[in-house]
Amino acid sequence: MSPLSELTDVVVELHSDLAEWLGSAAPPKVFDRFANALADDFSSVVTTGDAVDRDTLLAGLWSAGNAQPGLSIEITDVEEIVRAPRLVVARFVAENHLGDTVTRRRVTAVLRTDGQLYSWLSVHETPIPATGSTEATPPAPT
């Protein structure tokens, strides 16, 4: 298996567990798999721009179990930006599907690895505007 294929599997597995936890009456072992994938010193910058630590994120997710019935998360465009002996930086698109609503984010993640196992250290999410969005384009520099 290629390193990119392995990395893609790691990204898909984490988001599959997240979608199962948020979108169904999943057993606690699904939450545990998600939580165990995060390093103790994990932090995330969410789409609001707020930085949250591992404990804060997990507390919110625990209480949000089955809060979005039917949620699915599709992962595309996985790129390996940097690979060092014990560290990988990846970028990908995560697309949440809930009924007719689709929310897209571009995500940059930093993962620690021993060559076999991966542990998520940091995630930074940026919303991707919907196609055809009327969001203003920033003015060109003068």
Describe the protein's architecture and organization.
With 142 residues, this protein is an alpha+beta fold. It has one domain: Roll (Nuclear Transport Factor 2, Chain: A), CATH 3.10.450. It has helices at residues 3-23, 28-37, 54-63, and strands at 38-45, 51-53, 72-84, 87-98, 101-113, 118-128. Strands 2-1-6-5-4-3 form a six-stranded mixed β-sheet. Strand 3 and strand 4 (87-98) form a beta hairpin. Helix 1 crosses helix 2 (28-37). It starts with a helix and ends in a 14-residue tail after the last strand. The relative contact order is 0.17.
What is this structure, in a nutshell?
The chain is of the alpha+beta class and 142 residues long. It has helices at 3-23, 28-37, 54-63, and strands spanning 38-45, 51-53, 72-84, 87-98, 101-113, 118-128.
N to C succession of SSEs: HHEEHEEEE
Task: Report the CATH C-level class.
Answer: Alpha Beta
The CATH architecture classification is Roll
Give me the Rg, rounded: 16 Å
- What's the domain count? 1
Give me the secondary-structure topology.
Elements: H1 3-23, H2 28-37, E1 38-45, E2 51-53, H3 54-63, E3 72-84, E4 87-98, E5 101-113, E6 118-128
Parallel strand pairs: 1-6
Antiparallel strand pairs: 1-2, 3-4, 4-5, 5-6
Helix pairs in contact: 1-2
